[in-house]
Design a protein that fits this description.
9-stranded mixed β-sheet; single chain; 364 residues; binds ligand AOF; binds zinc ion; 5-stranded mixed β-sheet; 26% helix
Length: 364
Amino acid sequence: MSAPSPFMQEAIRLAASVRGRTSPNPWVGAVLVRDGQVISRGATAPYGGPHAEAAALAGVDARGATLYCTLEPCVPFEGKRTPPCSDAIIQAGVARVVVALLDPHVGGTGVQRLRDAGIEVAVGDGAEAVTDLLRPYLKWRQLGLPYVIAKFAVSLDGAVGAPSAGVTWLTGQAAVERAHRDRDWVDAILVGSGTVIADDPALTARPGGQPADRQPVRVVLDARGRTSPDSRVFAPGAPVIVATAHGSPPEWREAIVRTGATLLELDRSSGRLELRQLLRALGQRNIQSLVVEGGPTVHASFFEADLVDEVHAYVTPRLLGSAGIPLVPQGASLPVIHIDPVEIAPLPPDVLIRGYTGSWQPPL
Ligand code: AOF
Ligand code: ZN
């Protein structure tokens, strides 16, 4: 992987600083440079607000300067909320633009527009790093489906917990904090009814121990209508989507809808909820990233359907022995998956192994 130039690296840092705060817009960064000095910076504002390029160009004399942007500047299109960045760049008199990655929504027309106006444009500096940063957006644009992260904590002997031995929470504080930082940028978190019943999780993002300013959508898979409407997941604070099967009890449905949650009715195939149908419905609601937090049956269903893009495995130094509930449920027929490349983060006493399954490959 060729490293981005230092100015592009700065633009990438800006983009990363607004990760999860721009949805459904991609997180983008821009840096304006003159005579080897950064004269201004921009990052995408929350949806409906200025784009990174517009923010970098605001209030400065950009004539003759070079603009580094992590994504291709946008062009006019129907329903657009903000003025097109390519026009702003042209009007500002920018001489040169360095773009890391083409925007699949714009498809090269932004670069063309700039070139037609006599601006020198280079594409590709930092392309791999930006592709990595924008995996959720790129998958959603390409397939209309959210990018799926399977997150679980697992003991050294492959168990996810041992409630009968009093072990329900496996990891230490450092791992919990990291998991909350990831909840803090994704569009949605999903759990199965078993997890709601057993753990009653709030499913909120609490980075640094405090509730985040923006909460991910909570998704509950409950084919048969087993969850109580009094569960914490239905508390106000974020939209809740409950995916159920045809035929779940009408009284339960009414109670769930009364909590303010949205019901989605999914087909079944071989007895299981059609998860691809669920992902399509979430994608249509502009959900670009989804963390699947379990439990084991839910993880197995996502892996069986080859719908997992990224794995976050928190490995915890314990052996749960015969009391452990296996990560892989009995009877599941799961494929072999090699995670590559991997990030290994020590979060003492635990270790996070994070990486890609290859189920979806970004276009590059
Ligand atoms: C950019 N810079 O920082 C971002 C871009 O409705 P609008 O006006 O907000 O436009 C949304 C589209 O703009 C979005 O679908 C994506 O193609 C692009 N995002 N473009 O030039 C940015 N976030
Ligand atoms: Zn734009």
